[in-house]
Amino acid sequence: MSTAPTTVTEDASQPDAPTSPSRRWAPLRPLILRLHFYAGVLVAPFLLVAAATGFLYAGAFQAEKFAYAHEMTVPVGDEELPISQQVAAARKAHPEGTVSAIRPSPQDDASTRVMLSGVKGVDAEHTLAVFVDPYTAEVRGALEQYGSTGALPLRTWIDEFHRDLHLGENGRLYSELAASWLWVIAAGGVVLWFTRRRALRKVRGTSGRRRTLGLHGTVGVWAAIGFFFLSATGLTWSAYAGANIDELRTSLGQATPSVSASAGGDHGGHGAAAGTGGSGEHGVGLDKVLAAARAEGLGDPVEIVPPADDSSAYVVKQVQRSWPTKQDSVAIDPASGEVTDVLRFDDFPVLAKLTRWGIDLHTGVLFGLANQIALMLLALSLIVLIIWGYRMWWQRGRGSAFGRPIPRGAWQQVPPQILVPLVAVVAVVGYFVPLLGISLAAFIVVDVVLGEVTRRRGKRTPAEVK
């Protein structure tokens, strides 16, 4: 929720302290208020960048359809050509690299994508997507593509900007720091809001700092669930917390499974090494492979991945991330065209399914346009909350300067029976979410040092000051 120096506007000594059913929070309220203040002041800039770039990314799906309409859409024809013929047309226009995957046209007016890897001038982690008219085999263009959702240049640029500010792996630390703190600040804001007296939460009829606080708290409480969700799902594919989550899932037997790509025998001459110039055609060929996958119930959209080597099979997998999710996959022997392995999304472990749905909801693909609009509204609310938070801090200084920080020593008011378990929980959470733990430790060290400096200055005599 409150993601900036938010409820910082309330002094720890103010009379709007917790009342009846909230008395249990009374010892913790000053500590939460101080943490909420400092986390807001120091982390809000990272959250502001994440919210702004996330807003752009949520709108990138629709912008992509407009920007690349010529490549992505085709006039509807009478009958689609065999997929092998479409791939051959793509290879004739772009003989460079090798075919790494093929996505047959998923809709009547959609083009087929033939993805090429190892193309000079294309990022090693990206592919060159060649767009082919499935009715005429006309090549309508080629664009660099990234990721499992098939992001084209515009969306790829925004995606990388949101993820790492185009700074590479080190840049990912900013987004992980933001995701690590978002749920903490949101939870603190919710507690602070509901431990205020009801009469002090209203917006109507108020002005100045009181009105700003009312608006900030009301919007923050309504958006808090969304912030918890964004934080949790953002951490699932972060660098450090994400690795810990993956390790935990694996230990619980909840890792995302994958179809076995082994051909199940010695099929020399049918693997990628035996392909005809990296065309994607091996053994029985693409047409029979696609037909075998269709027979197993794999409807559009699907992706065909050619064998990686002589001992590998074709892998055909559904790639629909929108609801209902289609993620079934099959492995097909390139020599015989027989299905050697089948993996159904229904058989995924529970946490694997939740991770899939959580990521797709976070990226705006699970429910399409409605999902993307909801994400844009969440991003806007976060931006507004941060602005209101800093405004409250300014108003706390009587509108001419930022107000003084929340007083130190709040932890001393917390009874040991609450403080000790709280510290233990924080330590465990800090271990699994390391950027939260490290930054919180840094906050504490800086706070202690500044407090000690202030204490020593206070002990200096007038003569010493001179």
TrEMBL record:
Nucleus among the record's keywords?
no
Q: Which UniProt keywords apply?
A: Membrane, Transmembrane, Transmembrane helix
- List compositional bias (Gly residues) regions by residue number: 270-280
Q: Does the keyword Flavoprotein apply?
A: no
Which positions fall inside the PepSY domain?
A: 81-141
Q: Where are the transmembrane segments?
A: 35-58, 173-195, 215-240, 365-390, 418-450
| Amino acid composition bias (Polar residues), ranges on this chain | 1-22
InterPro entries membership: PepSY, PepSY-ass_TM
The entry's protein name is PepSY-associated TM helix domain-containing protein
What is the scientific name of the source organism?
Answer: Streptomyces shaanxiensis
Its lineage reads:
Bacteria, Bacillati, Actinomycetota, Actinomycetes, Kitasatosporales
